[in-house]
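Supplementary Note 3. Input sequence used for the single-chain structure prediction.
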Amino acid sequence: MTEVVTAILTDFGKVVCDFNRDWVIAGFCSRLPGTPSEVIKEALSGEKGRTLLREFECGSITEDDYARRLLSLMGVKGMGREKFWRIHVNMFTPNWDVIRLWQELQRVHGVKLVAVTDTDPRRLEYMKTISMLKFDGVAASFMVGHQKPHESIFKLALEVAEVTPEQCIFVDDIEANVQAAEKLGINAITFSDAPHLMHRLCHFGLVL
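The predicted structure, written as discrete structure tokens, is reproduced below.
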């Protein structure tokens, strides 16, 4: 007998929110006019910057360590704390079609909604705020020390949602993450757009 789906495990970036990393580069460039734009771009997008962000997203370093080391890569001694984090999070725009879909599923079917995301605490809180979704829990990379597709983040999501793999659906735009979830027995959908997502959800009995 097919299990009734009682929880949605949703990715954030490119599903609930779109993002543009160039906005972060532009933000630092506007606030640091004395620093060459190519230096700022390299600090954020180069190998050292990507490694640093990954450490932050995996909870290996603190917020203060991340800010200090990133500014050091830019050759900047310091910046106001709030100014720094305002630039850091300003890269997301809500995907309202998906947000309305999740809200309707919560209202009509009473499903739990759990965010499963590779991100840091600052960006997580910002995305939760701008999406205006009511989450029942979060499984984030900084909580488990690993990014998707590592199984630990999916196991945390199942614990948070209090469901078995058969009782939930994981939605992500990256195929490797979807395959990793499926290996654990989790129903999974590769996201492309809201209409396709709604169509796929119908196969699991989540009809609106």
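Residues 22-89 form one domain. The two ends are 23 Å apart (CA to CA).
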